[in-house]
Amino acid sequence: YAMLLSLIFLIVLVAAVVGFVFRHEIKTSFESNLNLALENYNVTVDRHSEAVDTIQRTLHCCGVQNYSDWERTEYFSQKGIPRSCCKSQNDCLEKDLKDLNMAKLKVFVDGCFFLVTSTMESKMSIVAGISFGIACFQLIGIILACCLSRYITNNQYEMV
Question: How many angstroms separate the CA atoms of 24 and 44, rounded?
Fold first, then answer.
């Protein structure tokens, strides 16, 4: 049991170190995947499109860097900026969403990349604290498992 806990502890420790060391690559990968999701955005049921809509609605943002990122997509040429960017769903008309100047007044202008990364970084201290607490419990479990093993081994010799 102590060996299993030690293995899990080492895996979590390695994952945390790798995440910290490669955090810039993770950001770059997220940005490129978000750009790709915008390019392939459509109104059919698609996981990536739903994720983009959810991010835009939740964080009150639009596009990767700003709302004008949608201008480079095929979806914009057909339907304009998605409704998930609208500040008010009742006030967004399709003709307004096809015109960038008019859309600026109706949609969130801030990009999602900065908001997502800043939200993740602000929550990182909470995640680190919880991870540290779990690691402490794992270490206590490892120590107690080793003590129990030693106690059981010592008692077997006394019984004979």
Answer: 32
Average per-residue pLDDT in the chain?
85
Domain regions of the chain by residue span: 11-123
- Topology of domain 11-123, per CATH? Cd81 Antigen, Extracellular Domain; Chain: A (1.10.1450)
**What is the total residue count of the chain?**
160
User: Bridge-partner residues for 107, per DSSP?
Assistant: 86
Averaged pLDDT, 7-32? 85
153 alpha-carbon distance from chain centroid: 47
**Radius of gyration of the chain from Cα atoms?**
25
- The pLDDT of residue 7 is 92
**Distance (Å, whole) CA 129 – CA 127:** 5
Structure tokens at 95: 């003709």
**Whole-angstrom Cα distance, residue 132 to residue 142?**
15
